[in-house]
Design a protein that fits this description.
This protein is α/β, with parallel strands linked by helices. Helix content is 47%, strand content 21%. It has one domain: 2-Layer Sandwich (Nucleotidyltransferase, domain 5). Strands 3-2-1-4-5 form a 5-stranded mixed sheet, with helices on both faces. Strand 2 and strand 3 form a beta hairpin. The longest helix is centred in the last third of the chain and has 23 residues.
């Protein structure tokens, strides 16, 4: 499972059974950046439903490879996910995935108002696909 963790949303993607391709699944919305209980519960339900064995979490490094506030929040979210789901959570560099998602959706003819609804799970898809490509044996 791939996750793109944002301040108000979490994009979710899963791989096919062979672990070759990633597909966007959904975007989880929350009303407040600090309220994560329902988000964690939804992720746990998806983990069980799709028999997930590992979570790949987008890690928002700065362009100069330093870690900022969002990276620190992501590491805290990783810790919560590991505790809640009992699975390994791998942090994976997500630099430029949102921009790439926007470009893909735009080139695919998706209207601007519809892109906002899909951008998070598209970014999660790119994060997961990047991880799988790098670890393909």
């Amino acid at each position: 499972m791939g996750l793109d963790y944002g301040t108000k949303t979490v994009g979710v993607a899963i791989s096919d059974e062979l672990g070759i391709t990633a597909q966007g699944l959904e975007t989880i919305h929350r009303k407040s950046p600090r309220k994560l209980r329902q988000t964690l519960a939804r992720i746990q339900k998806l983990v069980e439903e799709y028999t997930i064995t590992k979570i790949i979490l987008g890690f928002p490094k700065n362009m100069n490879n330093t870690l900022g506030e969002r990276a620190e929040e992501t590491m805290l979210f990783r810790d919560m996910l590991e505790k809640r789901c009992g699975l390994p959570v791998v942090l994976w560099d997500e630099r430029l995935t949102t921009m790439e998602s926007e470009r893909i959706l735009q080139s695919g003819g998706v209207r601007r108002e519809n892109r906002k609804q899909r951008i998070d799970w598209m970014a999660a898809t790119l994060i997961l696909q990047s991880y799988m490509d790098a670890n393909m044996k």
